[in-house]
Specification:
The complex is a heterodimer of chains A (541) and B (367).
Chain A lengths: L1 H7 L6 E10 L2 E11 L4 E6 L5 H8 L3 H5 L4 E6 L2 E2 L5 H6 L2 E4 L11 H5 L6 E2 L4 H4 L5 E2 L1 H14 L15 H13 L6 E5 L7 H16 L3 E5 L3 H7 L2 E6 L2 E6 L6 H9 L18 E10 L6 E9 L3 E5 L6 H8 L5 E7 L2 E2 L5 H6 L2 E4 L14 H13 L3 E4 L4 E4 L1 H14 L16 H15 L3 E5 L7 H18 L2 E5 L3 H7 L2 E6 L2 E7 L4 H8 L3 H8 L1
Parallel strand pairs in A: 3-10, 3-11, 6-9, 9-10, 15-22, 15-23, 18-21, 21-22
Antiparallel strand pairs in A: 1-2, 1-4, 4-5, 7-8, 11-12, 13-14, 13-16, 16-17, 19-20, 23-24
Helix pairs in contact in A: 7-8, 14-15, 14-16, 19-20
Chain B lengths: L1 H10 L1 H17 L3 H20 L2 H5 L8 H17 L4 H28 L5 H23 L22 E3 L12 E6 L2 E6 H18 L2 H11 L1 H6 L4 H27 L1 E3 L3 H15 L9 H26 L2 H39 L5
Antiparallel strand pairs in B: 1-4, 2-3
Helix pairs in contact in B: 2-13, 3-8, 3-11, 3-13, 5-6, 5-7, 5-11, 5-12, 6-7, 6-11, 9-11, 12-13, 12-14, 13-14
Classes of the chains: A alpha/beta (541), B mainly alpha (367).
Bound molecules: adenosine-5'-triphosphate and magnesium ion.
Chain lengths: 541, 367
C-alpha cells in the first residue's frame, strides 16, 4: 500500500481500466475489470469464447452498441483523464485505433483508398473558394506514399493498388491494421483477434511488425486465442474468465498450459486421441489435375482421392495452395481439371451445381457474413436445412399445410449448444449477441445439421478458444461416425489435422507433395511442407 | 479466354442486343448513311447533357434518379422568363440557366432530403416525387404565372390573361447554341451539320465528371455508393453528401433541358419534362449501365443506340407491316420495358451476390 504512493508520483499510465462492469439485459458479462497499460507496452487479453474480451474493447472504443444496451459501470482513464467516449470518433481523436473482429473495408476501393478512407490527401484548387473544402482534388501520389509508408511499417508486401474485394483474407487484415497505424496520433492500438484469419507465417510477420510499433511507443491491447503468440509478443497478460480478471501475469513467469488452465479454470490436457486405422472403402471424391486461380493460394496441379466415410486432411504452409482446393472444387474461384464426386463428374466454376450434389463448405473466411445475425441460434442452425431438405417441418392434411417444427429445431439447437458448448442465454438468443467464437460454432453446427455427403471445412478452430478446440474436433469426428459423413478438413495447424484425420495430404507450391496416414511422425509432414518429397520418401523407406 | 469472352458478352448483353436490332432495322428502313449520321449527331448533341446528369447520383449509390425531372422543370421555368424578357441568342440561354439554377438547387435539396428517408428505394421514391412536384409545377405555370409572377409576354400567356400556353415557340433561342459554332461537312451527297459549340459544352461536362471523381467529395460519394455503413463509420457525412449528389444532378439536368429545348425549338410546357426522365434513363441503361454502375461511355453508346432505334423503327415498322404507328409503340414499349428489366435484373443480381457471399460460408446445399 505504501508502495502505491511512490508509484503515483510518476506520470499517470496511458490507459487505466478501473472497476469496469457491463450487463447485457441483466446478463453480467464484465465485472470489476481493472488493469493499466503504459506507452509502448503490449497487453495480451485472453479468455474463453464469450469471456468478455470484445465487450471490454467495445466499451473502450465508444462503440454505440454499449450505450444502446445501457452503458457500463466503472471508469476508464487515458493519461490520467477520464475517457468516456460516446462514439468511436471521440476514441479515434483521443488516439485509439481499433481493428475489429469483423472487416470494414470497402470492397471496390483499393488498398490505398481504404487505408486513407476519409483522411485522403488533397490539393488546393480555386473552386475551393466557391464550393468549400470538399471540392479539393485528391492527391493520388501523396496518398500512395502515405499508404505505402503505413504498409511498410508492417513489413508485409501488399500492392497498394489492389482492390479489396480481390485480396486474400490475410491481406485484408494487414490493410485494416495499416489503416489504424496510418493516423499520426495513434498511441493505443486495440487488436481483436488480428491473427485469427492469418496463416501462421503471416501471423509471424504481423507479430514482428507489432513489436516494432511498440518500440516506437505505441501501446497495444492484443486479443488472441493463439496463446503461443500471446506469450511470445506481450509484456503483460490479463486473463479473463466469465467477465472477471482472474490473473495478471508476465509471460516470462508462465507458459501456455498455465494460462490455458487459468482461462478455463481447470487443467487442459495437451494431447488428442488419434483415430484408429480404418479399412479402405470405395472412393467418394476423385480429384485429378486440379488447378485453382485463387489469389494468394494458387493451386497448380493437385490429384488425390478421398474414401467414403473418411476424414481427409489438407495441410501445408501459408500461400502454398491448400486453401485453394476446397474453394476451387466448390466453384468459388476459377478452376480447371477433373473432379468426380460419387461416381459422377462435377462441372467446375458452377457453385450452384456443387451444392445440389450434396456437398457443403464451411469457408475459412467466415467472419460476419455466415449468419443471419438478427435471427436466433436455433433458426440459424435449422434454416438452411429446412429450406433445402424440408426438415424441421410438420406436415398436415397430407402435406398440404406445412408448419415449422419448433420443437425439433430447439432439440437440434440444444444438442449442438451442448456438444460445442456454445455460450448463450438460450437457443432463442440472437446470433448478433454472441461472441465471435460462439458465432463460429453456430456456423459449424449449421453445416453439421445439414449433414451433406461430403463436407469441406477450412480452418475449423480459428477463433475458437483453446478449451473449446477439442470439442469442435470431437464433434467433427462424432458427426463423421454417426452420419457417415465424409469430411475434408483444411487447416494450417498440423497437430489439429493429425488429431482428427485418417490421412493427410500436404500441399506445397500448388502441388501435392505427399499423402500420409495421420499417425506418421510429425517430422515427416514437416519435411513434406518444405517441399522435400524425396527426402521424405527416403525416410519412409 | 472463353470465360472472359462469355463474361464480356453477359455484361454487355443489353447494348449487344440493340446493336443487333439496329443492324436488322437500318437496311429495312432504307435511310441513307448521311441522313442517319446527321440524326445521330443532332440527337447526341441534344440529349447527352441530360443523360450525363444521371451519373453522379449513381456514383453515390442512389440509383437512377428520376429526380432529374425536377431539374428539367426548373430549366423550363428559366426558359419562360428568358422569353418573357425577350433576351435572345446565347445570352438568353445563359439567363435561362441562371434563373433555373436556384430553383434546381432548391428542388434538389428537397428531393435529396426525401431520398434520405427512403434509402434503398431511391428510384421509386424519386419517380413519385416527380409526380408530386409536377403538380406544384403545373400550379405555378398554369395559375401563378401572369397572376402572381410577372410574366406578361402575349407570346407566352394564354388569352384568358394568366397561365402559360401549352406550346411555346422559343423565338430567338431556337438553335442558338447549336448554330453558334456550326461545322458542315459532306457525307455522300448529304450535308451534315455538326454543332461544335454544344459538343464543346458536353466535353466540358465529361471532363468535369472525370475531375469530380478525383475530388474529396467524389471519393466520399464513391465510398457511400459501396457501403453506406462503412462510410458512415469512417466519419463521412453520408446524408449531406447524398443531398449534394442530387443537387448537382438536378442543376445539371436543368442546364441539360435548356440545351435540349433550344435544339427542338418549341417547348411543350406541360409535357416536355415528363419524357425527359424516362428517355434519359432508358438511354443510359441501353448503353450498358446498371443501377449501381455507369460510365461516360455508357452515356454516348446509349444515346446513339436508343435514338437509332427511335429514328429507324417507325419506317422499319411501316416497311414491314405497313404501319408507322408500330415503330412508335415500339419505342415507348422499349423505354418502359428496358427500365423495368433493369430493375428486375438489378434485384436479381443483388440477390445472387448476396447468395454467393453467403454460400461459401453457410454450407447451403442449393444455389
Ligand atoms: N449485443 C449483445 N447483446 C447481448 N449480449 C451480448 C452482446 N454482445 C455480446 N454479448 C454477450 O457478452 C458475452 C461476452 O461476449 P464477447 O463478445 O465480449 O466475448 P469474447 O471474449 O470477445 O469472445 P470470443 O473469443 O468468442 O470473441 C457473451 O456471452 C455474449 O453472448
Ligand atoms: Mg470477441
Amino acid at each position: 500500500m505504501t508502495l502505491e504512493n511512490v508509484v503515483r508520483t510518476d506520470s499517470p499510465p496511458l490507459l487505466k481500466i478501473d472497476g469496469v462492469g457491463k450487463e447485457y439485459f441483466g446478463n453480467k458479462v464484465l465485472e470489476e475489470v481493472s488493469f493499466t497499460l503504459e506507452a509502448g507496452e503490449i497487453l495480451g487479453l485472453v479468455g474463453e469464447n464469450g469471456a468478455g474480451k470484445s465487450t471490454l474493447m467495445n466499451i473502450l472504443f465508444g462503440m454505440p452498441v454499449i450505450a444502446r444496451t445501457g452503458g457500463y459501470t466503472g471508469r476508464i482513464e487515458i493519461n490520467g483523464r477520464e475517457a468516456a467516449f460516446s462514439s468511436p470518433f471521440d476514441a479515434i481523436d483521443a488516439g485509439i485505433g481499433m481493428v475489429h473482429q469483423e472487416f470494414s473495408l470497402l470492397p471496390g476501393f483499393t488498398v490505398t483508398e481504404n487505408i486513407l478512407l476519409n483522411r485522403e490527401s488533397t490539393k488546393y484548387n480555386p473552386l475551393v473558394e466557391v464550393f468549400g473544402e470538399r471540392i479539393r482534388a485528391l492527391d493520388r501520389a501523396d496518398m500512395t506514399k502515405r499508404a505505402k509508408s503505413a504498409i511498410s511499417k508492417l513489413e508485409f508486401h501488399i500492392d497498394s493498388n489492389t482492390v479489396a474485394a480481390e485480396m486474400p483474407v490475410g491481406h485484408k487484415q494487414f490493410t485494416e491494421i495499416a489503416r489504424e497505424i496510418s493516423r499520426d496520433n495513434t498511441k493505443l492500438l486495440v487488436l481483436d483477434e488480428p491473427t485469427a484469419v492469418l496463416t501462421e507465417s503471416e501471423a509471424e510477420i504481423l507479430i514482428r511488425a507489432l513489436r516494432n510499433l511498440a518500440v516506437k511507443g505505441i501501446a497495444m491491447v492484443f486479443i488472441s486465442h493463439r496463446l503461443e503468440e500471446v506469450v511470445d509478443l506481450c509484456d503483460k497478460i490479463v486473463v479473463l474468465r466469465d467477465g472477471r480478471v482472474v490473473r495478471e501475469a508476465e509471460p516470462k513467469n508462465t507458459d501456455v498450459y498455465q494460462i490455458a488452465s487459468w482461462m478455463v479454470g481447470r487443467k487442459i490436457e495437451g494431447d488428442h486421441s488419434r483415430r484408429v486405422d480404418r479399412e479402405d472403402t470405395e472412393p467418394i471424391l476423385e480429384v485429378s489435375h486440379l488447378w485453382v486461380d485463387m489469389p494468394g493460394e494458387t493451386v497448380r496441379d493437385v490429384s488425390f482421392t478421398v474414401q467414403r466415410g473418411e476424414i481427409f486432411g489438407i495441410g501445408g504452409l501459408a500461400g502454398q495452395g491448400k486453401l485453394g482446393i476446397a474453394n476451387g472444387i466448390m466453384g468459388l474461384h476459377p478452376a480447371g481439371g477433373k473432379v468426380v464426386f460419387d461416381g459422377k463428374s462435377i462441372p467446375l466454376n458452377d457453385p450452384a451445381h456443387v451444392l445440389k450434389r450434396d456437398m457443403a463448405f464451411v469457408s475459412e473466411d467466415r467472419r460476419g457474413v455466415g449468419l443471419l445475425l438478427d435471427e436466433s441460434i436455433d433458426w440459424n442452425i435449422a434454416f438452411t436445412s429446412m429450406q433445402v431438405q424440408g426438415r424441421f417441418l410438420k406436415s398436415y392434411l397430407g402435406g398440404l399445410i406445412q408448419w415449422r417444427d419448433d420443437e425439433a429445431m430447439r432439440d437440434a439447437a440444444d444438442r449442438y449448444i451442448e456438444l460445442l458448448e456454445i455460450r448463450c442465454t438460450s437457443h432463442r438468443q440472437r446470433a448478433v449477441e454472441l461472441s465471435g467464437g460462439n458465432q463460429q460454432k453456430v456456423c459449424l453446427a449449421k453445416a453439421f445439421v445439414i449433414g451433406p455427403k461430403l463436407l469441406f471445412v477450412s480452418e475449423p478452430t480459428r477463433g475458437i478458444d483453446i478449451g473449446a478446440k477439442k470439442l469442435v474436433l470431437d464433434t467433427l469426428k462424432r458427426v463423421n461416425e454417426e452420419q457417415g459423413m465424409t469430411v475434408v478438413v483444411t487447416s494450417s495447424e498440423l497437430e489439429e489435422l493429425r488429431a482428427v484425420c485418417d490421412r493427410i495430404t500436404i500441399v506445397d507450391s500448388g502441388r501435392v507433395s505427399g499423402i500420409r496416414p495421420a499417425n506418421c511422425p510429425a517430422e515427416e509432414f514437416g519435411l513434406l511442407m518444405m517441399g522435400a518429397q524425396d527426402i521424405a520418401a527416403a525416410v519412409e523407406r | 479466354m472463353m470465360n472472359r469472352l462469355k463474361q464480356f458478352l453477359i455484361s454487355n448483353s443489353v447494348p449487344i442486343v440493340f446493336v443487333g436490332l439496329s443492324a436488322l432495322a437500318i437496311p429495312i428502313s432504307g435511310y441513307s448513311a448521311g441522313y442517319l449520321v446527321q440524326e445521330m449527331i443532332t440527337r447526341l448533341a441534344r440529349n447527352s447533357f441530360l443523360v450525363l446528369s444521371l451519373l453522379i447520383p449513381i456514383m453515390a449509390g442512389m440509383g437512377l434518379n428520376f429526380g432529374m425531372v425536377l431539374g428539367a422543370m426548373a430549366g423550363q421555368i428559366g426558359l419562360i422568363f428568358a422569353i418573357n424578357w425577350s433576351v435572345v441568342g446565347i445570352p438568353g440561354l445563359v439567363l435561362a440557366s441562371l434563373i433555373s439554377m436556384p430553383i434546381a438547387v432548391f428542388l434538389g435539396f428537397v428531393c435529396g432530403n426525401v431520398l434520405n428517408r427512403a434509402k434503398g428505394r431511391e428510384m421509386v421514391t424519386s419517380y413519385i416525387l416527380g409526380f408530386f412536384t409536377n403538380g406544384v409545377y403545373q400550379f405555378v405555370v398554369l395559375y401563378a404565372m401572369g397572376n402572381i409572377l410577372p410574366v406578361t409576354s402575349p407570346q407566352l400567356i394564354l388569352s384568358r390573361g394568366y397561365g402559360i400556353r401549352n406550346a411555346v415557340t422559343l423565338t430567338g433561342l431556337r438553335l442558338a447554341l447549336d448554330r453558334a459554332m456550326n461545322f458542315q461537312f459532306k457525307l455522300g451527297d448529304f450535308t451534315v451539320n455538326m454543332p461544335i459549340g454544344t459538343f464543346l459544352l458536353i466535353g466540358v461536362f465529361c471532363l468535369f465528371i472525370l475531375w469530380f471523381r478525383g475530388t474529396k467529395l467524389g471519393q466520399d460519394m464513391r465510398a457511400i455508393g459501396q457501403d453506406m455503413a462503412a462510410a458512415d463509420s469512417a466519419g463521412i457525412a453520408v446524408e449531406r453528401t447524398r443531398v449534394i449528389a442530387i443537387i448537382i444532378s438536378t442543376v445539371l439536368a436543368a442546364f441539360g433541358q435548356v440545351i435540349f429545348l433550344q435544339n427542338i425549338g418549341t417547348m411543350n410546357t406541360y409535357n416536355s419534362h415528363e419524357q425527359t426522365g424516362m428517355f434519359s434513363i432508358a438511354a443510359l441503361l441501353i448503353g450498358g449501365a446498371t443501377i449501381s454502375k455507369a460510365s461516360i461511355s455508357n452515356v454516348f453508346i446509349g444515346v446513339t443506340l436508343f435514338h437509332l432505334m427511335f429514328v429507324v423503327s417507325p419506317t422499319a415498322g411501316k416497311e414491314l407491316i405497313g404501319q408507322a404507328q408500330l415503330g412508335e409503340y415500339f419505342r415507348v414499349f422499349v423505354s418502359y420495358g428496358i427500365i423495368a428489366a433493369a430493375l428486375v435484373l438489378h434485384a436479381w443480381k443483388r440477390l445472387r451476390e448476396r447468395q454467393a457471399s453467403r454460400r461459401g460460408l453457410r454450407g447451403e446445399t442449393q444455389g
